[in-house]
Specification:
Chain A is mainly alpha-helical. In chain A, 74% of the residues lie in helices and 0% in strands. The N terminus of chain A is likely disordered. Classes of the chains: A mainly alpha, B mainly alpha.
Chain lengths: 328, 285
């Protein structure tokens, strides 16, 4: 593994002519320059700019172009958002969704990782390839297919529920004819299906990472524990989990970051930005800024709030990666 | 999962059964997308779905590839817009990333660690939060409604990961080769071009695929920066023309298949590196 402490090694230590070494000193900065300019202009500057925008009242695209004044409103946008009861709904949606999705993704992903580790070679290869398909599918088309599966007339799920014996369906759900049933109509159902879509997309990464971690654990440890009479549950919590703790840490943090800002799946499933009861922070910010009438300042303030939440999670992530590089 | 030794056959059966269930759950939507795209409309909308198309037909593919979605604009035009944006992003980001990766993998300099930490941190910036300020920048640069606005944006998004990944590939090339070339009198530029570049090329391909997928799949920015329908990228075109019309599942699935297949092929080529790149923060040599 390339490590932070090891990689810089030799350039200066090795025998090179003094003339070359002097010239080389400036070279790395020159090589970095284009990269730094691009990251600065396209990532760091907008990050600062979104904060600046959140302090202004910006309701017109001409203001963005610089043709009109930017009235300063201080924390006005934040006050407006935080005093709106709707913000609480959005925040609750976002947090509950992220927690549920991270938990489900981690549990399913870990189980599949453990399973792949125990399957025979050919079966493992087959299951892993299928799992890769879910991972590789773009968020956009994956969501469109799930939407088709839940279509209210010819969708597969509608058909499945219609195929239930009428009496059973009637006593369980209070209806036997599911044709025309709006699967996405209640926020709870909408979020359940969105969770299904997002977990389907994200469990493969967890499974494959856990599998990679498992492969690095010496199998003698597991053998020894089993010989001592430990059951699978105990083996996992006493041996596998402690050994893979760093991997799990990073996976949880990455999943949290991803699930906090889900946009594409929600946008496609909801068919745009009209379904306000199911808003989460990222789509809320987008809708405020770009749905007419545009409120760029307000949208920016919501984006800043989202960023601050993720900043905390990111801090954890960076600490973990750095620690791992030191340990390696 | 039962204890090793006890009831071997039943355990194997249970494990394989679980494996098949997982495989079904993971792969079914992809299968269903392709199967639906090949079914005649009558079969798609029948009340009892067929698991396999009884008479596979390419009618939906023909329809989206030849029919005009708006006057004079077909699916192929959106496909080309997307390809143009993605390929430009790949070329620019690969070039810039290679230079930066060489700097961090080959040289020791003062701000090296700072730069690496910054790379990690910027990858965590929620890009969704940058739509509004980047929209402002694109407006000011006069790039609104142009494909370069997207190339520029995706370049910024794909670069940090590309550098992070490439530095492992550069570090894996034995330094001695370059030193030998230098002793033989090759200039710095020659060494780079004739020794380092060919050896890093496979890594560059892998990195490029990630940049390609990033650019190809992106929806939000393309939705925001492009106004004219003939300049839509494929994801925008799909949400715009298909996402809202719930009755055209045949063409929708055909379009989805055409959009998805290149990504799956590319993805399968590089997925190994993704795991090590994201989890370990470094690529093994």
């Amino acid at each position: 593994m390339t490590t932070l402490t090891e990689a810089p090694e030799t350039a200066a230590a090795r025998e090179t002519p003094a003339r070359r070494r002097r010239r080389v000193d400036r070279l790395p900065y020159l090589l970095l320059l284009p990269c730094l300019v691009i990251i600065g202009v396209l990532l760091l500057w907008p990050l600062g700019q979104v904060v600046v925008m959140s302090f202004h009242q910006l309701n017109n695209v001409r203001q963005l172009r610089g043709d009109r004044e930017w009235p300063w409103v201080g924390l006005g946008n934040y006050a407006e958002i935080l005093s709106d009861p709707f913000f609480l709904t959005v925040l609750r949606n976002t947090v509950l969704f992220a927690v549920a999705n991270v938990a489900l993704t981690m549990v399913l992903g870990t189980l599949v990782g453990l399973l792949l580790n125990r399957l025979g070679r050919r079966m493992a290869a087959f299951v892993a390839s299928c799992v890769m398909l879910a991972w590789a599918t773009p968020a956009l088309t994956g969501t469109i297919v799930w939407k088709w599966i839940f279509d209210d007339t010819s969708g597969l799920v509608t058909w499945l529920f219609n195929a239930l014996p009428d009496g059973l369906s009637q006593s369980l759900f209070g209806r036997s004819d599911w044709t025309g049933y709006g699967w996405f109509n209640s926020p709870l159902m909408f979020f359940s299906i969105l969770t299904l879509v997002v977990v389907w997309h994200s469990f493969p990464f967890i499974a494959v990472s856990v599998l990679a971690g498992l492969k690095s654990v010496p199998s003698e440890l597991h053998e020894a524990a089993r010989v001592d009479g430990a059951g699978p549950w105990k083996v996992f919590w006493k041996i596998t989990f402690p050994l893979l703790r760093p991997v799990f840490g990073i996976l949880i943090v990455l999943s949290t970051i991803w699930d906090f800002k889900v946009f594409t799946q929600q946008f496609v499933l909801a068919g745009g930005t009209q379904d306000r009861p199911t808003f989460m922070l990222s789509i809320y910010s987008y809708a405020e800024a770009f749905s007419p009438p545009p409120k760029y300042g307000l949208g920016a303030a919501i984006a800043v709030i989202l960023t601050l939440i993720l900043l905390v999670v990111t801090g954890l992530y960076v600490r973990m990666v750095l620690k791992q590089e030191e340990d390696a | 999962m039962t204890r090793r030794g006890g009831g071997g056959g039943a355990k194997r059966l249970a494990l394989n059964g679980a494996g098949l269930l997982v495989a079904l759950f993971a792969a079914f939507p992809v299968y269903w997308m392709i199967a639906t795209s090949l079914k005649p409309s009558s079969e798609i909308f029948s009340s009892t779905p067929r698991p396999v198309p009884s008479e596979p037909t390419f009618e939906h593919y023909r329809q989206i590839l030849t029919g005009n979605l708006i006057p004079g604009v077909t699916f192929a035009d959106f496909f080309l817009n997307s390809a143009l944006v993605a390929v430009s992003t790949v070329v620019l980001s690969g070039l810039v990333a290679l230079l930066a990766a060489t700097a961090v993998a080959r040289f020791r300099f003062k701000l090296r660690t700072t730069f690496l930490i910054m790379l990690l941190v910027v990858q965590m910036i929620p890009l969704e939060a940058l739509v509004i300020p980047l929209f402002l920048m694109i407006q000011r640069l006069g790039l609104y409604n142009t494909l370069p606005s997207l190339i520029l944006t995706y370049l910024g998004f794909s670069l940090p990961f590309a550098v992070w990944m490439l530095r492992g590939f550069v570090a894996a090339v034995p330094k001695e080769l370059e030193e030998a070339a230098a002793i033989d009198g090759a200039s710095r530029a020659q060494t780079f071009r004739k020794v380092l570049f060919p050896l890093v090329a496979p890594g560059l391909v892998a990195t490029s695929i990630f940049s390609f997928i990033t650019a190809w799949n992106e929806l939000i920015f393309a939705l925001t920066f492009i106004n004219d329908q003939e300049s839509y990228t494929l994801p925008v075109a799909m949400t715009f023309f298909f996402g809202r019309d719930d009755t055209a599942w045949g063409p929708v699935m055909a379009a989805s298949t055409l959009f998805t297949l290149p990504v799956i092929v590319f993805f399968l080529l590089v997925q190994r590196r993704m795991v090590s790149g994201l989890v370990a923060g470094a690529v093994k040599g």
